Amino acid sequence: MPARFSQQNQRVRPNSNEDKVVARAKEHFEKTLIQISGDIAGSVAALEHPTKNDALNYGEIFLRDNVPVMIYLLTQKRYDIVKKFLTVSLDLQSTTYQTRGVFPTSFVEEKGKLIADYGQRSIGRITSADASLWWPILCWLYVRKSGDQSFGTSQQVQRGVQLLLDLVLHPTFEGNPVLFVPDCSFMIDRPMDVWGAPLEVEVLLHASLKSCIQLMELSRKHQKSRLLDQRLVLTRQWVHDLRQFLLKHYWVTSKTMQVLRRRPTEQYGEDQHQNEFNVQPQVVPSWLQDWLENRGGYLIGNIRTGRPDFRFYSLGNSLACMFGVLTAPQQRALFRLVLHNREHLMAQMPMRICHPPMDIEEWQNKTGSDPKNWPWSYHNGGHWPSLLWFFGASILLHEKRYPKADVLLMGQMRALIEECYWSQLNQLPRQKWAEYFDGPTGTWVGQQSRTYQTWTIVGFLLMHHLLRAEPDDVLMLDLEEEF
């Protein structure tokens, strides 16, 4: 672990050129938008991407990268682009036997023909799970924000929802209500020992199923269907069971860790359920005690038989707040944890994607000596400015939901994200809106980082919009809200 540095060193002086920086960021964003069949359908992954090597795909429309793009466009009421993106993605939903129901990782138009990638062109040839899970969420946000109920109830959308539900709710050898995925199948797209039931995928599954329920309920208002009623009952039960599973097995605090370390092992039989995954006390990492402090809490990265992943993943925990997986007190416990560990998670470029990074033999064995994922870089403890808006939106949404809860803590959190916002305002234009940053404090631009990265630009614009322009727009992300 690096030596801690004082919070005073993190204070950022406000930039008097805020309006100019925001205006320039908007100009960059407009340049990222590209057309499909004559209409704008989304953003390329990065403005500056090599064009000589046709195999590189930063000029394609990635579903994952376009999540903040579409949410930002919804705040700007540019509904036609969002609808086009959703429609093209839906048209490309796989109907082949092995991948039936899967949405493409990315797509691009070449010589008038749509070309989609379901993993067959990616490094490692892994199909992205998060692309498929994000689609219903974006679809429901669009339908509710735009009021376009006819799109939500259309046969095409409802069929797409059912295909996705068939994919994720089918019987398996696994009895737990989680979605099992291989390594590299979501934003962590390099080998990082995240196979199994990684937090981000399970939280996205929870939000995706909730969005599917909302879309099916919308259809049910217009047309009664016994089959639809049965699917709604099944999906609601799955959402409930999944959330209970995550809160039971993923949520840890100092108190729960004391219980976990003293639980019996080698239990057999249905009545012996104190240690269902046979977790040995020796696997609890030494850094966890100081990390949790007394009042902090977070969702661990993964739960596997005898091999829980205690690493902190910023996106999964932020989404768990945003989408209501965590209770209100648990969300505040997470905020306290981030505040306590701000030197690690925020540092010079907010925020770190996971903590702590793997090093030495662990890095060699679990990443395959991946040169892009060396310690403190890329997904192995690197800093991604695109993650700040997810966490910032979680704080702002919590303030809207619970305006009188722990005013002192929430004041500290508001000050934290303000400082992080100013830090990005000062640094990102000078660093050419880089994709990620390296080092324990996130000071250096990532060794293989693309510049003018779209979700870096649009993440900053979203943070500005929610802090300065229209704070109430954060309520759009509350999946419990209906028409």
Automatic annotation (TrEMBL):
Keyword Hydrolase: yes
Molecular function GO labels: beta-fructofuranosidase activity; endo-alpha-N-acetylgalactosaminidase activity
Leading EC class: hydrolase
Entry EC no(s): 3.2.1.26
Signal sequence coordinates: none
Protein keywords: Carbohydrate metabolism, Glycosidase, Hydrolase
Catalysed reactions listed for this entry: Hydrolysis of terminal non-reducing beta-D-fructofuranoside residues in beta-D-fructofuranosides
Pfam families per UniProt: Glyco_hydro_100
Gene Ontology process terms (BP): carbohydrate metabolic process
Gene3D superfamilies: 1.50.10.10
Organism domain of life: Bacteria
Family indicated by similarity: Belongs to the glycosyl hydrolase 100 family.
Protein name per its UniProtKB record: beta-fructofuranosidase
The species this protein was found in: Prochlorococcus marinus (strain NATL2A)
